[in-house]
Amino acid sequence: MLTLLAEYSAHFQPLNLFRYITFRTAGATVTALLFVFLLGPSMISLLRLRQGKGQPIREDGPQSHLVTKKGTPTMGGLMILSGLVVSTLLWANPRSGYVWVVLLVTIGFGAIGFYDDYLKVTKQSHKGLSGKTRLAIEALIAAVACYAMMKLSTPQLATKVAAPFVKDLLFDLGWFFIAFGAFVIVAAGNSVNLTDGLDGLAIVPVMISAATFGFVAYLAGNVIFSNYLQINFVPGAGELAVICGAIIGAGLGFLWFNAPPAQIFMGDTGSLALGGLLGSIAVATKQEVVLVIVGGLFVVEALSVIIQVFVFKRTGRRVFLMAPIHHHFEKKGWTEPQVVIRFWIISVILALAALSTLKLR
């Protein structure tokens, strides 16, 4: 919204700053940070009052969780989404179709996660919304978003997927692109959801991924930089950097309250929304494969659950002591801070590897 002030820069030249994506990205980061930081205490108090016993804790999980995490309220994703949406509406260009599509996915996935959290809290059970129902609604939202992004994209890129490390190599999927893009978005949302199991474990890798994709979106939306790096130029994609800045700010504000011992959990409300957001930005910038690299931690967490379930159903044996894999390391004797910080380090390494794909062509 503030970008409209740039139209009056002829009368007051400093308003010209609002034309620059870098300036607005910084503004979105600070705004989201302050919004969540100031909103946090009252939101936590309200959720604790409403939820009573807080988020149900897995009885088959690490025994320490039954002591340290019991009674902690969930749905902290509401704090993140509030700061993110307000900041984005304030600093992003409202004329950008990509901004509205990404917000559609974020709010849609957040609503699904909220309802899932609500059922778990009210029933004091891990059984929330039916898995099939949840996936079906997520897939519908993601498919609509992918169709919209096809229409927003240039005809040369609308249904194509780029290969990393190779210049000018595009795979045209035709109408199958909608199914592919929807899969990327849904998989990203649920992978982040599975990662969110320890204090601070999910939010920092999400911020690292957002910083990476903010950089990628800015480059992809700039014809000079995209030509220099030989990546696909996606007109209008640069505005997604503003949303990524808002994620970082909101994430930092949330981390203040989610740092161990957490005062509040993100819940499905936040994890599904943030994962879907990252997936939709990857689809919009034509960097779906890069998402697999930068979000490698989320991929491993999801695969650990898939492998565990598949092998157990076939053989009755477990590959991991407990899935997702972060609980496996807890069972092996790692402390919670060790698991969280080491996974953060892995996320930074993966982000650097993902950025290398922009130049190694």
Secondary-structure element order, as H and E? HHHHHEEHHHHHHHHH
What would the average pLDDT be, to the nearest integer? Answer: 89
Number of strands: 2
Q: Mind describing the biggest β-sheet?
A: 2 strands, antiparallel
- What is the CA–CA distance across the termini? 37 Å
Oligomer: single chain
Poorly predicted ranges: none
Q: What's the structural domain tally? A: 1
Radius of gyration: 20 Å
Strand order of the largest sheet: 1-2
Shape descriptor reads globular
Helix content: 55-70%
Q: Can you count the helices? A: 14
Strand content: under 5%
Structural class call reads mainly alpha
Describe this structure in words.
This protein is mainly α and 361 residues long. The chain has one domain (23-289). Helices cover 66% and strands 2% of the residues. The chain contains 14 helices and two strands. The chain has helices at 21-51, 63-68, 77-91, 97-123, 131-152, 176-195, 203-220, 223-229, 240-258, 267-284, 288-294, 296-315, 325-331, 336-356; strands spanning 160-162, 170-172. The chain has a two-stranded antiparallel sheet with strand order 1-2. The protein starts with 20 loop residues before the first helix and ends in a 5-residue tail after the last helix. The model has no long low-confidence stretch (mean pLDDT 89).
Task: Give the secondary structure arrangement, pairings included.
Blueprint (H helix, E strand, L loop, with lengths): L20 H31 L11 H6 L8 H15 L5 H27 L7 H22 L7 E3 L7 E3 L3 H20 L7 H18 L2 H7 L10 H19 L8 H18 L3 H7 L1 H20 L9 H7 L4 H21 L5
Antiparallel strand pairs: 1-2
